Amino acid sequence: MFVAGFPAGAWGTNCYLVAPAAGEECVIVDPGHEAARGVEDLIREHRLKPVAVLLTHGHIDHIASVVPVCGARNVPAWIHPEDRYMMADPERALGRSLGQQLMGSITVGEPDDVRELKDGSVLELAGLELTVDHAPGHTGGSVTFRTPAAGEVPPVLFSGDLLFAGSIGRTDLPGGDSKAIMESLARVCLPLDDATVVLSGHGSQTTIGRERATNPYLRQVAGAADAPAFPRRGM
Fold first, then answer.
1. What SUPFAM superfamilies would the database entry show (predicted)?
2. 3-state SS string for 156-187
């Protein structure tokens, strides 16, 4: 599997292009603030052919470029129905005061073709198999996308703002739920193989094994008695 990514815009949100190999069809995960140019650069560099945009959740730092990216290639965007309203009304998702500070001149809205994700569904796109897991807590409609192992290639989890290297997503914005995010960590992340590569919405790459051993929140849901709490991340 081929993955190219970059941190986009003011919030450094990771945008990923995923394909079976360079020169083939791809999906685009989380084209956030000012991501359109970086997406086009990677498409040209690696001769990719986008077929869909996949959104881990609806916060503006993950979806700000969804309209131009989808429009440029005439491809659909996939999002969980509980977060779909954020495409047209991102201020509501952030709270009015924070939303007014962050929105500025960002143009928002839905692309022409929006499709809704379901928990447990398997998307077969661009020659890839991506399993959708609903993972509420950061937002009500947060999801992850995971690919199976293929030969020597380990499974990959696109975790959005559920799980980061050393931390998890914040839950203090509208729709956030501390109890729900811990339940999502237990249900979605703990069963995964330690070799699973985690590509999150912010920060560096990690693995499930590393986070199982060191992430205080994953250790907490796994029942480790000596797991301290640290600040959460994400917008």
1. Metallo-hydrolase/oxidoreductase
2. EEEEECCEECCEEECCCCCCCCHHHHHHHHHH
Give burial (CB, 10 Å; 0-12/13-18/19+) of 25: middle
46 in helix, strand or coil? helix
Q: What's the rounded Cα separation, in Å, for the pair 96 and 75? A: 31
Amino acid at 48: L
What is the torsional sign of CA 66, 10, 22, 126?
Answer: negative
Distances from the Cα of 49 to the Cα of 17, 62, 68, 126, angstroms: 10, 21, 16, 9
List pLDDT tens digits, range 17-72: 999 999 999 999 999 999 999 999 999 999 999 999 999 999 999 999 999 999 99
